[in-house]
Amino acid sequence: xxxxxxxxxxxxxxxxxxxxxxxxxxxxxxxxxxxxxxxxxxxxxxxxxxxxxxxxxxxxxxxxxxxxxxxxxxxxxxxxxxxxxxxxxxxxxxxxxxxxxxxxxxxxxxxxxxxxxxxxxxxxxxxxxxxxxxxxxxxxxxx
Length: 143
Hints:
Blueprint: E1 13-20, E2 23-30, H1 36-43, H2 47-50, H3 58-64, E3 71-77, E4 80-89, H4 97-101, E5 111-118, H5 127-142
Antiparallel strand pairs: 1-2, 2-3, 3-4, 4-5
């Protein structure tokens, strides 16, 4: 039996929100299956520090990148994905007991960072800082 992700569109849909030379930040409207392998590969660097659950799967890509209300951004260098950050409004996590206990739950003013990673070879170039700063500005406008 095929997994449901095989029936998804292969082409991603995104909107460029910032660029500088070969570097670009995009808000992902939809992540297609063509980008799954690269995103999963990038997420493997999180496993050592956060455990196996930090590694993306086709199902978690659908849940966190393609779910209504989430704020997934990717970083590209020369058109290749080099990192991502996923923001999730706290209220979307209402099934999580810890989220419901947060003092800001229900106020619609808190974005939870599900994951943030840049490939190791790009960390010293300032790309991670640009990705996080741009996302903070966008999150502030939304709240």
